[in-house]
Amino acid sequence: MARLFLLLAAFSGFTSVALGAFAAHGLRQQLSPEYLAVFQTGVQYQQLHTLTLLVVALLLQRQPDRLLTLSGGFFVAGMLLFSGSLYALTLTGIGKLGIITPLGGVAFMLGWLLLGVAAWRQR
């Protein structure tokens, strides 16, 4: 699972930089300042949790752990649901996509909670 999380972190890191550049250069004239800020929030959360996923992958290489694996899975789900819904909302203008965003936030929180529990149980 560590290898998969490393690959996903690399892909997510690449796409978050590309999306950030796309927003800064390609969307500035297309989106309202409010929607541009929402898009950038998605990029920031994706970048932060990409680094977190990288840490989880490195920890899993050191010592496989079910809670760490679940934590990484929740971080991936959070990036898809939280950041993905913000990207989709701003690019399509479909406001109802915003109901998905909190699910991603919950996934992030569960990922952090499980990471903490895994750390607590470390020897």
UniProtKB/TrEMBL annotation:
Gene Ontology CC entries for this record: plasma membrane
This protein's UniProt keywords: Membrane, Signal, Transmembrane, Transmembrane helix
Membrane topology: Multi-pass membrane protein
Compartments it resides in: Membrane
Protein's UniProt keywords contain Transmembrane: yes
Keyword Transmembrane: yes
Highest taxon in the source lineage: Bacteria
InterPro entries noted in UniProt: DUF423
Similarity comment text for this entry: Belongs to the UPF0382 family.
Protein name: Uncharacterized membrane protein YgdD (TMEM256/DUF423 family)
Lineage per the UniProt record: Bacteria, Pseudomonadati, Pseudomonadota, Gammaproteobacteria, Pseudomonadales
